[in-house]
Amino acid sequence: MYKPATIKDIALALHLSPSTVSRALRDGYEISEETKKLVVAYAEKVNYKSNPIALSLKNKRSYSIGIVVPKLANSFFSQAIAGIESIAYERGYHTIITQTHDSTERERANVHHLAQRSVDGLLISVSAETSDFNFLKTLHDDGLPIVFFDRIIDEIDTFKVTSDNFKGAYNAVESLIKAGKHKIALLSNSPHLSITNERLSGYMKALVDNHIPFRSELIRNCNKGGNDYQEVEDAVKDLLHMPEKPDAIFISSDRISISCVRALKSLNFNPKEIAIAGFANSDVVDLLYPSLSYVKQKSFEMGQIAVEMLLKLIESKYPITEFETRILDTEFHLSPL
Predict the structure, then answer these.
(1) Are 288 and 304 found together in one domain?
(2) With 0-12 CB in 10 A as exposed, 13-18 as middle and 19+ as buried, what is 334?
(3) Which residues are the signal sequence here (predicted)?
(4) How much is the pLDDT for 2?
(5) For residue 56, is it within any domain?
(6) Quick check: is 2 in a domain?
(7) What pLDDT score was predicted for residue 297?
(8) Alpha-carbon distance 310 to 324, whole Å?
(9) Domain limits at 96?
(10) The 219-221 sheet, strands edge to edge
(11) What is the pLDDT of residue 51?
(12) d(Cα 30, Cα 55) in Å, to the nearest integer?
């Protein structure tokens, strides 16, 4: 079956970067006339047809930024968006905010919609369901600036900002161990997310450093990330009905933490028997009962850094080829009980 040539194909053939090819095809002033002629001639030779979405990436800016997050009701993401907007509006940009509900289908639809609306760039925290990022790679190769925050991926070379998830998890689990807990269960998010793997590594390292054997039967993944309360309650019930039930639970996701506390309360568990620690950015986390020790992320600051990175990509007169991944410290708050 015939496959039309892409910007990436032209870049490979001419030994240029995809962004250079994209700018040359759009008559970017920063590209030499010689390179433009070379690219245009080759594009005509291979009968290159512009992607309709790529066509919407005009030289003129729309001064709008697309934001794609899993859930607006999640305290972490609402705080991150506040950080994004605090910088964006100061710099004259408007934001278009969409949520995926951790659905790949909705994520693709949202990204496609934002690109068609000619946003100048995209800030995204990927969906728990998504494992194939080709739709984002295509847009990136076509010249759309993209920055990842919190849930980041390795597949695209660009700016990224996230938390020190390893250290945050390590500190939380170590606090449970210091409280005398040795059968520590883990309630986690979708296993292929970057944050899931980093927090799992922190959990496991804390066990190893304290000579506690890792037990895979104590791990439960909530693939819907706490958006489905029943999924979390079923996982908690499963743990509490184990022949040798855990004496503590570490929860590696903000939304799962709140759902877990709710489930434990409905199941009438004894808080003296099971301690809880987890990631949580809710403003009311200190009021929860049963109480939990929690890892708080610098969500507002993360949003500010992410949008600064994106604006650097959008406003640069020359292609940026060197990128950084910023890792922000977390804060650990010990339960008062």
Answers:
(1) no
(2) middle
(3) none
(4) 47
(5) no
(6) no
(7) 96
(8) 12
(9) 64-162+299-327
(10) 219-221, 184-188, 248-251, 275-279, 293-296, 331-333
(11) 58
(12) 19
